[in-house]
Design goal:
432 residues, alpha/beta, Aminopeptidase, Aminopeptidase i, Domain 2, nine-stranded mixed beta sheet, 9 helices, 20 strands, 27% helix, globular
Length: 432
């Protein structure tokens, strides 16, 4: 692979991230690309009988997409790429209007493992979805994205806190409410601002899933622009790579041996325990229904799963130059060295030798490098949707990811070449 395709892919990734500040926007961005490639949406209430070609099911912040070639046997095995759409951030409370000492503020909850210091003194916008009163009384949803510097969590001046550089933790209960205006708090002020941005009547807003996002655009870093810096690299790198690989698998293989699947779940950062998370039956139900809709039996469904393979693609840790002792001394991935294969014998990752063999064979076909990753024994190991998917479906699973720094930060870093490597490898896995 030459540098040009790498940079072209990464340029496209940065556009994808800029358009996707919330899980709901991630799904919207992904489905737009799928529809452009000829995929069609299937709703739960639709008749799926005989559905072949490119299909997808979108539910809030989750997306299941797959491609069935015409004439494929109903027992054709699945090749699944599992990712997640959410990222740690600050989410707006149901009754957000608050303030003190003459400042207008909003109340937020901390979503996921947020390094709170990275959210200080950053210009923040608002994104997510509104649940609105529909014409027939049933709710409808509307995405909203305000890329304006509306809010800020100001840090206390060092003159007023001389211990700030001594590792004192931010008081999560008192000092996390962002400021956004002067004057006394006004009931419904935030709602009116968000509804206006969505061109909706505030009276029609029945609820919301809104969050804050850093409005600084993604970009490149380094003497040779060899790094990418952006919000939400974890895990939009993998979603974007999965969509790219699925579209190419659907259009570039004449006789596919597998049914390629993209499963992008929500709420991974808080345990995946929701109707759209990896612990839910969403993926299992969609894939099972796709088999039966094509005339397959229970036996066909079992055969399709028995021959299935899943690659769980999430961000991984590159070795940190200032804290190298926190990493395993013999497993220190670097940016632009290719995606990592993540191993943990305590099953925080689902990787085993069979999964490694399938992944490395795909790397060879794609002409892409890879690196091994194991956590330092003295440090707690993270996890991903890999073990959840493996346990729920009973399929061989390998955990992989692009190595980066500042994971979960308001602004993360990775190598500029690695996203394209990941997409090429996922494509090789999907097509066999």
């Amino acid at each position: 692979m030459t540098p040009a395709p790498h940079r072209s892919h990464t340029d496209d990734l940065l556009s994808f991230i800029a358009a996707s500040p919330s899980p709901y926007h991630v799904v919207a961005s992904a489905t737009q690309r799928l529809e452009k490639a000829g995929f069609r949406e299937l709703r739960g209430t639709d008749d799926w009988t005989g559905a072949t070609g490119g299909c997808f099911v979108a539910r809030a912040g989750a997306l299941i997409a797959w491609y069935v070639p015409e004439g494929a046997p109903t027992h054709t095995p699945f090749r699944i790429v599992g990712t997640h759409t959410d990222s740690p951030n600050l989410r707006i409370k149901p009754s957000p209007d608050t303030g003190t000492a003459g400042w207008r503020q909003i109340g937020v909850e901390i979503y996921g493992g947020v390094p709170l210091n990275t959210w200080l003194d950053r210009d923040l916008g608002i994104s997510g979805r509104l649940a609105l009163r529909g014409p027939d009384g049933s709710p409808r949803n509307r995405l909203v994205q305000i890329d304006e510097p509306l809010l800020r969590v100001p840090q206390l001046a060092i003159h007023l806190d001389r211990t700030v550089n001594e590792g004192v933790a931010l008081d999560r209960q008192r000092h996390i409410a962002p400021i956004w205006a002067l004057g006394d708090p006004q009931e419904g002020a935030l709602l009116r601002r968000v509804a206006a941005a969505a061109e909706e009547d505030p009276a029609d807003v029945l609820g919301w899933d809104l969050m804050l996002h850093d409005i600084q655009p993604p970009g490149y870093l380094g003497v040779d622009r060899e790094f990418v810096v952006s919000s939400r690299l974890d895990n939009q790198i993998s979603v974007h790579a999965g969509v790219t690989a699925l579209v190419e698998a659907a259009t570039g293989v004449e006789e596919p041996r597998y049914i390629p699947v993209l499963a992008a779940f929500d709420h991974e950062e808080v345990g995946s325990g929701s109707e759209t998370g990896a612990q839910s039956p969403l993926l299992e139900r969609v894939l099972s229904r796709s088999v039966s809709a094509r005339g397959g039996s229970g036996e066909d469904w079992s055969r399709a799963l028995s021959g299935a393979f899943c690659v769980s693609a999430d961000m991984a840790h590159a070795v940190h130059p200032n804290y190298a002792e926190r990493h395993d001394p013999d497993h220190r991935p670097l940016p632009n060295g290719g995606p990592t294969v993540k191993v943990n014998v305590n099953q925080r990752y689902a990787t085993d030798s069979t999964g490694i063999a399938v992944f490395t064979a795909a790397c060879e076909r794609a002409g892409a490098p890879w690196q091994p990753f194991v956590s330092n024994n003295a440090m707690p190991c993270g996890t991903s949707i890999g073990p959840l998917t493996a346990a729920r479906l009973g399929v061989t699973t390998v955990d992989v990811g692009v190595p980066g720094l500042s994971m979960h930060s308001a602004r993360e870093l990775c190598g500029a070449d690695d996203p394209a490597y990941l997409a090429a490898i996922l494509g090789a896995i999907m097509t066999g």
